[in-house]
Structures are given as structure tokens and as C-alpha cells.
Amino acid sequence: MAAAGAAATDLEVARGKRAALFFAAVAIVLGLPLWWKTTETYRASLPYSQISGLNALQLRLMVPVTVVFTRESVPLDDQEKLPFTVVHEREIPLKYKMKIKCRFQKAYRRALDHEEEALSSGSVQEAEAMLDEPQEQAEGSLTVYVISEHSSLLPQDMMSYIGPKRTAVVRGIMHREAFNIIGRRIVQVAQAMSLTEDVLAAALADHLPEDKWSAEKRRPLKSSLGYEITFSLLNPDPKSHDVHWDIEGAVRRYVQPFLNALSAAGNFSVDSQILYYAMLGVNPRFDSASSSYYLDMHSLPHVINPVESRLGSSAASLYPVLNFLLYVPELAHSPLYIQDKDGAPVATNAFHSPRWGGIMVYNVDSKTYNASVLPVRVEVDMVRVMEVFLAQLRLLFGIAQPQVPPKCLLSGPTSEGLMTWELDRLLWARSVENLATATTTLTSLAQLLGKISNIVIKDDVASEVYKAVAAVQKSAEELASGHLASAFVASQEAVTSSELAFFDPSLLHLLYFPDDQKFAIYIPLFLPMAVPILLSLVKIFLETHKSWRKPEKTD
Amino acid sequence: MAAAMPLALLVLLLLGPGGWCLAEPPRDSLREELVITPLPSGDVAATFQFRTRWDSELQREGDTDHYFLRYAVLPREVVCTENLTPWKKLLPCSSKAGLSVLLKADRLFHTSYHSQAVHIRPVCRNARCTSISWELRQTLSVVFDAFITGQGKKDWSLFRMFSRTLTEPCPLASESRVYVDITTYNQDNETLEVHPPPTTTYQDVILGTRKTYAIYDLLDTAMINNSRNLNIQLKWKRPPENEAPPVPFLHAQRYVSGYGLQKGELSTLLYNTHPYRAFPVLLLDTVPWYLRLYVHTLTITSKGKENKPSYIHYQPAQDRLQPHLLEMLIQLPANSVTKVSIQFERALLKWTEYTPDPNHGFYVSPSVLSALVPSMVAAKPVDWEESPLFNSLFPVSDGSNYFVRLYTEPLLVNLPTPDFSMPYNVICLTCTVVAVCYGSFYNLLTRTFHIEEPRTGGLAKRLANLIRRARGVPPL
User: Fold this and answer.
1) B12, A383: Cβ pair inside 8 Å?
2) Residue B121 sits in the same domain as residue B36
3) What is chain B's mean pLDDT, rounded?
4) Last residue within a domain, chosen from B180, B203, B236
5) Which positions, given as ranges, span the membrane (chain A) (predicted)?
6) Does residue B190 belong to any structural domain of this protein?
7) Does the beta carbon of B26 lie under 8 angstroms from any beta carbon of chain A?
């Protein structure tokens, strides 16, 4: 009876064990995956390794240069070697994580008949006009014509000439090492026309460590898909001045051609407004010697803020806004001049603020006051104004004056106010800047997503990231093969896609769901369920352990 | 960061002939006016109107495409200085000169009524409308409670109302005038005195009644030069009788009725107090989608009889996309009250769609009434440019009617509001219930139960046995 009872108890104990084990098995096999699956956040896979690879990207900027030798430019036996290709490569020393190499691929060839004919003409301009016709050169490429040492195409003391398009002329030399000497000259000219350290340093100013030049380099606007340009006429004293300006005509005549030439770099929209009773924030000082008023250089930063609240255009635009203000000082404060550091009046009576715009003070001619009663009608001389504003516009877009090599003749300005190679140079710089921006954005996005595991990564965000990475790689390839136009377009795509991914609102959804709330919800369920299972598992484990060791002892 | 730096000047090549445009460039014109209406109760209503009109051709392609017409309402917004500042920026003279000097926020927002508007619309430049100008009209109406703020005195002046006086006209304005309504006090000069005495007066029919205004023209040099500033004052010689103002011919009222959180009814009461003339009214209603309207319950009754609207346009709502749009043309019989009512059901929102204070209720936009109200006095047709601004916002085409647009009051409707801590409570409760059930179930299944014979009895048994032994009965 007792034995039967013990056997029944053992059976019962074994059944209890099995039940506990089964519970544990169901909880682990079914419960855990179910819980994991239902509470997991959706995270599309991202190309993390490719993104980290972008940081070590080597940018190789290739400038294709076609070098054309005329008949008497180099010794005859050298001419026999033509055509061939020389590559001049050099690393640009910038403190930036990307290595940037600049590569001039010089394709040497002999001049064709019509080129010979053109280059034997009387003046450079004529030659250019004749050479210009046949074919349009690709963006970023250059053509250098080497003429004979004694050619009268250039003035005698000049060694080279840079044209308004993508052409340059260099004097040849009759020398044993003619190709070497000419090659050096060509690189000098080509550098002035395309890539220099300054241009790239200015483009990467935001990504480089601070140095003493950085403030100067940060003058240009950041690269963007579009820009909005606002011209404002400020008339603080409508009682004395009735100011008129033909802004529509001036924009049509001077600004629009410039912007058309720049249209490859982005979309532009231009608007204008007249603001009355808009005061500068600073009281000008009176200078009794010249009986005029002046603004100190150190007070100029305070001029902008009070005016800016009334400009009002930055709120309505997606793109960065460039403001150009024409300020007609009130009668009580005119004439008004801007003084530079040394106290001398600035010739243009204008100043600009980096990445913001420019202000010009337009003084009303004092003679007009004598003749008539107030208000005086003032017609603004738009040529004078637009000269200043266009020069400021060039500066703000980062089109600096070129560093011309010695003994080099620079062609006169074109009607657009922008030379074709200047545009190329801007595109080179903007492409590099875009690539740097896109890489930074992608890197920080990848870091953020890696750090916070709560964030949902939707498929469209992931696809934007993939697109951006592909565009960065494509742009780098195109730069390396010298296709500037497509490289620039790809770099813009890269920036757009990376920003879209970075600023996608879906990334914010689960970001603020903290861990303590999670535990508050889980603990009431998990604690009472898990504790018995765990305890019985521990008990079973201990018992089996004991029963395994017992037989050993008895043996 | 501004830096003065010598600029390398660009030499510009002039493209084409460099002659300047000799024609007079179109000049924007500004007209501004302030209408002051003393009310018999002692309150003073002041209405500013600024009209900027510019002749430059903005883009305008053909006729207005009605697919692009949009109508939007924000049923309620708390107005404050933030609404006034951007509005003032649109004025050419900002708040530096002219009538806009009086726009001082701390006075304008301490009033019993405040209404601010911006209208922008194309206006024809000539009778055949071959070319158009654009008009930006800004209006601001306030009602000052002069009786209470003035310690029981009903006298008022510009300085008392706005704490400023007029000093100079806006140099850009082609017209800058102050109108003071002296209609009721004009008959006998004894009741009221306006100081300084007006140079001219203006008479016209405004909203069906004949009005007389004293005019102060700021561009008139004599007006300001005499005393360096203009402070219009009004003194009552005899206190005015507190007679009720005449009831307007058209007015309206709107309310929501019903009980509970499931159904309700929107009712609009339209009053036509004209003694003998009926006129049609266009009623425009937009109702948010979360009030599901039952259009079959739409009833319009006037004088106890059903009133069939001559035109109904109804666009049903789509959840979270567009509101209901209901537009009706209703004929209001003379001297009657018309009730337009429609029933609705309150929808349940998603829990993230509730406002931060959902128990406050949800605002429903006012309905808009547009009507040509017959006038008692015949009015001259308005000349667009010559008549004062307050008369030309909605010009009448014929003299027997005048146009009125009324907005009823916005409504506050309560929606069924969930308990927002409910999800957490539900989770906690179910978890606890599951845990308790699970625990006993688990114990039942995994524990082994066997009957154990008690080896020794308790104290009671021993005690019982002691007694049994004493009695001679066998122990338990």
C-alpha cells in the first residue's frame, strides 16, 4: 500500500515536471518570438558599410585639357611625337577627411587647318571668334593653343592669354625641353582657369577646422538648389524724397543675363520691394570737416538687424535669400558715407554681409534740394547701383577674382559679367561642396540610427539613403572622368536625397518612447509569469543534477 | 557679420540702347480713413480702413478658375499683438505717420470688440475692365467702452481713446481723412459739440440709412498746422437718452442643441425685420467632418410653414479630408424668423487626433450670410474712386438695395472623449488578470498533490481523548 502510494506520487511528480518543462518550452518557443515580433520596430536595412566607406572616398578631379600646337610653336622633331597624352596629378593639401587629388589630363595634338588659320589672324579677339564656331566644349574641359614664340597674336611682353570661354593661348618655345617648359606654363594657366586650393578651401569652409582664414572663406552662400534674390529700396524719409527706381528694367538688363549664365548652378527667383520709414539701426556721426555724415566700419553689423525684421522674404521661401538694399538716407542725415578701417570713405559707399546680402547707400545729389520744394523727386541711377550689386552678387556666390599667373593677359569682361570658365570653376567647387555635405549628412544619419534602436526606418527613407549613396558614388566617378555637368547634377541629387532622408518626419515617431514606460507595461505581465517558470526550471535542474550525482556515489 | 570692403567694380556693358523708360511708372496709391461712430450707450466705434492700390500687372491668366477657389475658416483664434504687428507691416507708412500712428496695441486690445481684416482683390481700372489693378484693403474695427473707462463721462477724444493724437499725414497717402458720425445729433445742435469744428460734412446713405459725417482732412494743411496736432473731441451738452439702437433688417443667430454625446442639432435663426419686404439670403455653412450631418433632417421653417430653398448645394464630407459644405439660397418672408436646422451625429476621433484639451470641445465655424437687403432710402450708385472707403468695400449697383455679409457666432461642440489613460489601464488590468489565472493554473498543473495522514492530533484531539478516557469511552 505504501509502495503503491509512493509509486503514484513518483508518477505524479514526473507529470508535474513534464508539465513545467512544457510550459517553459511553450513560453520560449512560442511566447518569446511572438513578443519579439509584435513589439519590434520596423527598420529597413541601410548601407552602413558603404556610408562609412564614403568618408574615406578619394576625390579625383579630372580636368581634360586639350593642347593644340601650331606649326612653329615647338621644334620640328618634337612635333613628330604628337599626338600623345600627359597626366599631371597633384594632391590638394586640405585638412579634410576626403583626399582630394587634382589631375590635369593634357591631350597634346597638332593644330588643324582652320585653327592654324585662326591663330595666324591679327588679334586674339578675332582668333577667338573664328575658333569659337565649330563645336561647343564640354563643361569643365579646357583648350590651350600653343602659338609660336614670336607670334604677334599677343602683345610682346605677354606670355599667355585667358579667354572668356574655355580657351587659353600660350606662347611656345624653341628649346630642347620644349614640352616640359610649355607643360608647366599650361598647368599654371589651367589652374587659374579651373581648380585651385583657394576655391576648394572656400567650398569646404564649413567642413574644415577653423583657421584664421575661415571667416573670409565663409563669405559665399552655401550650395543650394535655388536662391532667392530680393532687391529692396529703403526710403526712410518719404516726406523729403520721392524715390523712383526702374528695378524691373535693371534686373532685365543686368541681373538676368548674369543669372542666365549661372542657371546651371541653381534656380533663381528675383523680387523687389520698396519700404518706407525703414531706418538703419545706427545713428550716423557728423563730420564737420566735410559737413557729411558717416557710418563707422564697426557699427555696420548693427545696421542690418532692425531693417531685417521688415524685409520679410525669408519666411516665405524655401531657398536661401540674398538681400540687396539700396538705402536713401533721410534728409537730416545726408550725405551719408561709409568709412573703412582707416577712416577713409569707401568708394562704392556699399558693404556686404557674408551669406546675407549687400547694402548700398545712395546719396541724393545736394543740388536737387535747392531748386524745388519737398519732396524731391529722385531717379535712381540704376547703372551705378547695379554695378555694386552685381559685384556683391559675384562675391556672395563665391566667384572671386582669378589669380592670374605672371605675364598673363586676361580678356575683358563679357556682357553677362561672368566668364564661362568662372562658371566651371564654381561648378567644380559646388560639386565638391555638395559631396562633402551629402557625406556628412549620411554619416550623421547612420550614426544616429545606429545609436538609437527605437527609430523606425521606413522603406522610403532607406531608398533615399541608397539613392544618395549611389549619387555620391556616381558623382565621384563622373568627376574622376572629367564630366563636370553630370557630376554636378549627381551631387545635387545626393544632397537632396540625403537631406530628405535625414529630415523625414517618420524618424521622430518612436524616438521619445522611453525605457521606463516599457518596463511599466511589461512587468505586470512578465514578472508573475516568468517567476514560476524560472523557479520550477531551477528546481528541476537541481533535482536532475542530484540524481545524476547519486548513482556515481553508489557505484 | 558685416564687413566693409573695397569692391572691385565690374564694368558693365550696356545691352541695347541705354535710355531710361520715360513713361511715368505706375505709382501705388494709398488712401486711409478713420470712421468714428459714437453710439448712444456711450461706446465709441472706430473703424480704420487703409487701401493700397497698385497698377502693376500681376500675373493673371484669363478668368478665375473655380477649381482653384478655396474657402477656409479658423473658427476661433485668440487675437493679440502678434496679429497686429504683421498687419501693420503691410501699411506703407508702417506706424510712423498718418492715421496708423493711432494703432497702439495696448489700447486696441483693451476694447470690447476687435475685428481685423485684410482683403486683397483685383479691381477694374475702367468701366469696361480692360485692365485691372490690385487692391489691398486693411480694416480694423474696435469699440471702446468710453462710458466705463471714462468714469461715467460719455465725452471722448482721440487722445482718450488711443493715447495719441494725429500729427502729420502719411506722405504717401493721396487721401487721409477722419469721419465722425454726427447723424443723430445733427438735427439740433444743442446736444453735441465736436471740436475742432469740421470744415466740411458728408452725407450719404450707408447700409440703408441716411448718415451725416463731419470730415477732417489731414492733407488739408490748415488742419494740423494750427495746433501742431489734431485731437478730435466730442462733448455732450445734454446727456444722450439711452434709446435702443434700431434693429437691423437682417440679423442671425446660431446654436447647437440636443443632449448626450451621440446626437445633436445645429440651428440657425435668420431674422428679417423689414416690415413689408421679403429678400433672399445665401447661407454658406462648413461643418467639420466629425459632425456627421444627416441631410434628410434639414428643415427650414419660417412663420410655422416649411420654406423650400430655391437652391441647395451640398458637398458631403470625407473623413479627415474635407468638411461638409452646405450652401442654400433661402427666401426670407417679411417680418419673420426663419429656422434652419439639421441633425448630426458626433464621430469618434482617433486618440491622437484630439486636441490637448479635448474636454473643452471643438469649434465649429460660423455660417456666412450674404444678402442684398432692401433699403428704406434710395441711395446713389457708388463711384468707386470718389466715395469714401467705408462705402466702397461692397458697392451697390442699384440704389434700392445694399449688400450685407454676416458671420454668425462660432459654436463649441463636445465630442465623446475617451479616457486617455485607458490603454495603460487596460494593459495593466489584463496583465494582472492573466498573471493571477496563469499562476493558479500553473500551480494546479505542475504541483503534485497527495493525501498526508496526520501523525498526531492537535490540541483539541488530545483534549477530547483526555475527556473520553475520563468517561471510559475508547479514545479517537
Assistant:
1) yes
2) yes
3) 80
4) B236
5) 19-36, 519-542
6) yes
7) no
* CB nearest A9 (choices: B9, B436, B448): B448
Q: Would you state the torsion angle of the CA atoms of residues A111, A117, A122, A128, taken in this order, to the nearest 10 degrees?
A: -60
pLDDT at B291: 93
**B449·A249 Cβ contact <8 A:** no
User: Domain locations in chain A?
Assistant: 1-41+513-549, 61-202, 226-397
Tell me if B13 and A238 make a contact (CB, 8 A cut-off). Answer: no
- Secondary structure class of B29 (helix, strand, coil): strand
Q: Which residues of A touch B436 (CB under 8 A)?
A: 528
Whether A528 and B438 lie within 8 Å, measured CB to CB = yes
Does the distance separating the beta carbons of A417 and B10 come in below 8 Å? yes
Is B12's CB within 8 Å of A387's CB?
A: yes
Count of beta carbons in the 10 Å neighbourhood of residue B323 = 22
Cα separation, B342 vs A45, in Å, equals 53
Same structural domain, B162 and B205:
yes
For A282, phi and psi rounded to 5 degrees? -120, 140
Helix ranges, A122-244 (H): 124-132, 178-193, 197-203, 214-217
Q: Write the residue in B9, B446, B450 that is nearest to A348 by C-beta.
A: B9
Domain count, chain B: 2
Residue A272 pairs in a beta bridge with A231
Q: Among A310, A245, A339, which Cα is nearest to B27's?
A: A245
Q: Are residues B223 and B299 in the same domain?
A: no
Residue B427 lies in a domain: no
pLDDT per residue as tens digits for the range B319-342:
989 999 999 999 999 999 999 999
Pairwise CA distance, residues B300 & B311, whole Å: 13
Rounded to an integer, what distance in angstroms lies between the CA atom of residue B333 and that of residue B279? 7
Retrieve residue A164's grid coordinates: 572668356
Residue in chain B lying closest to A279 (CA) = B96
Which residue carries 486617455 as its cell? Answer: B420
Distance CA(B371)–CA(B279), nearest Å, equals 8
Distance from CA of B268 to the nearest CA of A (A): 39
pTM of the model: 0.78
Q: What angle do CA A349, A354, A355 make, to 5 degrees?
A: 125
ipTM of the complex: 0.72
Strand partners, B364: B411
Under the banding of pLDDT at 50, 70 and 90, the label for residue B237 is confident
Q: Considering CB atoms only, which of A353, A379, A392 is closest to B7? A: A392
List, for residues A86-109, the tens digit of each pLDDT value: 777 777 777 677 778 888 888 888
- Put simply, the answer to whether A529 touches B448 (Cβ < 8 Å) is no
Q: Which of B236, B264, B285 is the last residue of a domain?
A: B236
**CB contact (8 A) between residue A532 and residue B15:** no
Range of the domain at B396: 250-379+392-413
Rounded to an integer, what distance in angstroms lies between the CA atom of residue A138 and that of residue B207? 71
Q: Which pLDDT does position B257 carry in this prediction? A: 92
Q: Is residue B8 part of a domain?
A: no
Which residue of A277, A280, A361, A534 is the best one to mutate when testing the B interface, meaning the one whose CB has the most B CBs within 10 A? A277
**Chain B hits for A416, Cβ within 8 Å:** none
CATH number, position B288: 2.60.40.740
Mark yes or no for CB contact A239/B171 under 8 Å: yes
Any idea which residue has 547612420 for its cell? A446
Q: Are residues B260 and B232 in the same domain?
A: no
The answer to whether residue B10 neighbours chain A at the CB level (below 8 Å) is yes
User: Could you tell me which chain B residue has the CA closest to the CA of A338?
Assistant: B4
Q: Cα–Cα distances in Å, from A77 out to A110, A116, A181?
A: 13, 19, 16
The whole-angstrom distance between A160's CA and the closest CA on chain B is 23
Contact residues on chain B for A341, CB-CB shorter than 8 A: 4
Q: Are residues B332 and B211 in the same domain?
A: no
Between A21-25, A343-347, A521-525, the lowest mean confidence (pLDDT) is in A521-525
